[in-house]
Amino acid sequence: MTGLAREQGFAPGVGDIEIYANTDGQGIWLAWQNNQPLGCIAAVTYNPGYAFIGLFVVKQDHRGQGIGHRLWRHALQTLNSVECIGLEAAVQMVGFYEKAGFQKDCVTTRRQMLCLSDQSNNPNTTLLHRSDINVVSLRDISLEAVQRYDERHEISPRPHFLELWLRHKAGEVFVAMDSKGECHGYVRIRPCLLPIGDGWRVGPWLAEDAGMASLLLNNAMDRHKGVVLIDTPGHNHSAKTLTTAKGFKPMGSTVRMYKGVMPKGHDRNVYGLACLELG
Fold first, then answer.
1. Distance between CA 149 and CA 181 in Å, rounded?
2. How far is it, in rounded angstroms, from Cα 96 to Cα 139?
3. How far apart are CA 9 and CA 5, in angstroms?
4. Is 236 helix (H, G, I), strand (E, B) or coil?
5. Which of 276, 278, 277 is nearest to 107 (CA)?
6. Is 13 helix (H, G, I), strand (E, B) or coil?
7. pLDDT (tens digit, 9 = 90+) per residue, 121-132?
8. How far is the C-alpha of 237 from the C-alpha of 153, rounded, in Å?
9. How many whole angstroms separate alpha carbon 228 and alpha carbon 105?
């Protein structure tokens, strides 16, 4: 499945698939023939109020045979009791999803830049801070503090997913922490697989203001050299301004869609999405 996602230009992060599969005890559904996977879809339930569909892929030479429709119907059936379902739609697929009852919410933009700075091998390099906030590694703050912050700013509580995501051995997490040990934002950067070669993906990237978001991103990027990708949500206009100022260029877009009632303003403090496959 990682290979399929890589071929499609999804730039899967190292270790992502195992997190998708384990977030709610099932996660990924496969289409098989003669003991070979022909396609897949992720249908992950965070809780009874929210789920997300992604990683919807069928091998090129098996398209047009109804495999994608069967995967799609199975995903919807699996999530039929969930109040709200989200997904990221390729532009050419928006009409298909609208027929299934999904409505357009905003445009998600993938941005890319080449980072030439790499301080990861310099033992004397310290994290950047500001007067009221220290930026620390995840090991220097309680996971519960990060989860509390995430719950206030994300669509739906996701403690199980977040713990798997942040504690995964691939990549690093940087957290904005005050003097009382409370979280005010965080960012994860992880290795990813480009269609040709490797790179880095940033996400989740949450912060209470643009200045703090910039501080977190600088700390993450200073230690990782190469191609860096960020998926920015359409409702956060500061994310576009900030990433453009740092040299990121738009390289493609998808449409965030929902079936069911979605609270407004839920992504105001989200600068970069964890992944398009799980929202």
1. 12
2. 44
3. 7
4. coil
5. 276
6. strand
7. 554 455 667 778
8. 16
9. 26
Q: Nearest Cα to 109, choosing from 240, 279, 228, 268?
A: 240
**pTM score:** 0.91
Integer Cα distance of 32 and 145 in angstroms: 42
Rounded Cα distance between 249 and 180, Å, is: 37
The residues that bridge with 268 in the sheet, in sequence order, are none
pLDDT digits (tens, 9 = 90+) for 52-67: 999 999 998 999 999 9
Mapping DSSP onto H, E and C, the string for 90-109 reads: CHHHHHHHHHCCCEEEEEEE
How far is the C-alpha of 149 from the C-alpha of 183, rounded, in Å? 6
Asked whether the beta carbons of 172 and 220 are under 8 A apart, the reply is yes
pLDDT in tens, 209-220: 999 999 999 989
Helix (H, G, I), strand (E, B) or coil at 2: helix
Q: Tokens 């309680």 belong to which residue? A: 142
Q: How many residues in the chain? A: 279
Q: Is the backbone peptide bond immediately before 233 cis, with ω within 30 degrees of 0?
A: no
> Tokens standing for 236?
């956060």
Longest Cα separation, the chain: 61
CA–CA separation, 55 vs 17, rounded Å?
9
C-beta neighbour count of 264 within 10 angstroms: 9
Question: Residue 171: beta bridge partners?
Answer: none
Alpha-carbon span 159 to 149, nearest angstrom: 11
Token reading at 91:
């532009």
Q: What's the CA gap between 16 and 14, in Å, rounded?
A: 6
pLDDT digits (tens, 9 = 90+) for 231-271: 999 999 999 999 999 999 999 999 999 999 876 656 778 99
What six digits make up the tokens of 59? 């091998």
Tokens 């200045």 locate to 211
